[in-house]
Write a structure and sequence with these properties.
Structural class of chain A: alpha/beta
Oligomer: heterodimer
GO molecular function (chain B): histidine phosphotransfer kinase activity; protein histidine kinase binding
Order of helices and strands of chain B: HHHHHH
Keywords (chain B): Cytokinin signaling pathway, Two-component regulatory system
Number of strands of chain B: 0
Number of helices of chain A: 5
Shape of chain A: globular
CATH architecture of chain A: 3-Layer(aba) Sandwich
Main location (chain B): cytoplasm
Organism (chain B): Digitaria exilis
CATH superfamily of chain A: Response regulator
Largest sheet of chain A: 7 strands, mixed
Subcellular location (chain B): Cytoplasm, Cytosol; Nucleus
Number of strands of chain A: 7
Number of helices of chain B: 6
CATH topology of chain A: Rossmann fold
CATH topology of chain B: Four Helix Bundle (Hemerythrin (Met), subunit A)
Strand order of the largest sheet of chain A: 1-2-4-3-5-6-7
């Protein structure tokens, strides 16, 4: 079940387990598009992750400052004010956050953009529209 | 009420939307995300889409008027709309968005204007058709969102 509170969609996994062993991984999804936010939250929920979805990099950093248990971040690239790349940079610059894997999503398949994100430390780069199979493939590898 | 007949009608309507190019496989991906916890997920996402797309179309309309020949601004707004279309499988609308962006790239004002009218037209048609589809699904009951259309 997912609920929408302010700019955040919070969804609990239907049951325990998730891709990793032990506690259900908590994934932070970041996308300024309400449509894409709903879809990525549903995909993650169907993979049995606990999901918080927010609409900006700023809100993502606020949440990361409060929640110690985020296992992974998946973020859109193009967002106003703070891009997904800028969010990635801030995460990787932070001693508290840099260990959190970050996956970038974008509707545009631009090789230089992909390379730049991977060089900055992104785990993977998914071209939108993102499918459940994409998430399953990437998250299985990263959260193993 | 003959629910199985309503379900057949809904399936037939969906097939028609695919055959006529209004929708593509991504729409099925959205419907596949429905489960017991979110039985109306697809309709909720489509509702979000039309709310969002109406706003974006209004933004573009204002930008066309207030920022003449600002092709970068026009393109940026249309990129957002195209992205949303792509996410829900709104195939014909996405194609018109792409045409608009091509005209932006060419610096072709007239092309942009005509293309934008097509985007609005496709938006209106898609809204009508999907409203009818989901209304039929609601009448058909919980098992209404059945299978992929035969493609």
């Amino acid at each position: 079940m997912a609920s929408i509170v302010g700019g955040a969609v919070v969804a609990a996994a239907a049951g325990g387990g998730g891709v990793g062993v032990g506690a259900t991984p908590h994934v932070l999804a970041v996308d300024d598009s309400s449509v894409d936010r709903a879809i990525i939250a549903a995909i993650l929920r169907s993979s049995r992750f606990r999901v918080t979805a927010v609409d900006s990099g700023k809100r993502a950093l606020e949440l990361l400052g409060k929640e110690p248990d985020v296992s992974m971040i998946i973020t859109d690239y193009w967002m106003p004010e703070m891009t997904g790349y800028e969010l990635l940079q801030k995460v990787k610059e932070s001693s508290n956050l840099k260990q959190i894997p970050v996956v970038i999503m974008s509707s545009e398949n631009v090789q230089t953009r992909i390379s730049r994100c991977l060089e900055e430390g992104a785990e993977d780069f998914l071209v939108k529209p993102v499918r459940a199979s994409d998430v399953s493939r990437v998250f299985s590898r990263v959260l193993r | 009420m003959d629910y199985s007949n309503l379900r057949r009608q809904a399936a037939s309507m969906k097939k028609s939307l695919f055959d006529q190019g209004y929708l593509d496989e991504q729409f099925c991906q959205v419907e596949d995300l429905q489960d017991e916890a979110s039985p109306n997920f697809a309709e909720e996402v489509i509702t979000l889409f039309f709310k969002d797309s109406a706003r974006l179309i209004s933004n573009i309309e204002q930008a066309l008027e207030k920022y003449p020949k600002d092709f970068n601004k026009w393109d940026a707004y249309m990129q957002q709309l195209k992205g949303s279309c792509s996410s829900i499988g709104a195939s014909r609308m996405k194609s018109e968005c792409m045409s608009f962006r091509e005209f932006c790239g060419q610096g072709n004002v007239e092309g942009c204007m005509k293309s934008f009218q097509k985007v609005k037209r496709e938006h209106g048609v898609l809204r009508q058709k999907l409203e009818a589809y989901f209304q039929l699904l609601r009448q058909a009951g919980p098992a209404g969102a059945a299978t992929r259309p035969g493609m």
